[in-house]
Structure to design on (112 residues):
């Protein structure tokens, strides 16, 4: 990891915007579907495209605390997401049956 002095020197020599990520950003993206934050997925995809296609456009900062917090919480978040996905999978056939009973079957393929 670079020292703060080294980073400051680099920024002075070649100024660019800084984006400081927090652990919650990663966790929010992963749980966006089950927490009603699906718009965050599009924003994250656009940011990812910028970082991949024009990596010199901004400087991404991720501290060691973010890595530590991620390691501490990733299993909890994974379990939460898996539980939500199982519940959603179970509900999809019921949603399709409900619309069929209303005489308005959904246009998508009905899950088995």
């Amino acid at each position: 990891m670079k020292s703060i002095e080294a980073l400051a020197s680099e920024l002075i020599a070649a100024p660019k915007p800084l984006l400081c990520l927090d652990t919650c950003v990663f966790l929010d993206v992963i749980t966006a579907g089950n927490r009603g934050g699906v718009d965050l997925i599009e924003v994250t995809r656009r940011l990812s495209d910028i970082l991949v296609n024009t990596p010199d456009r901004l400087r991404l900062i991720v501290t060691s605390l973010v890595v530590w917090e991620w390691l501490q919480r990733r299993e909890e978040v994974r379990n939460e997401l898996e539980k939500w996905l199982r519940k959603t999978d179970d509900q999809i056939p019921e949603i399709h049956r409900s619309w069929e009973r209303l005489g308005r079957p959904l246009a998508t393929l009905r899950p088995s």
Remarks:
- Helices lie at 4-13, 23-30, 39-53, 64-101.
- The chain is about 65% helix and 5% strand.
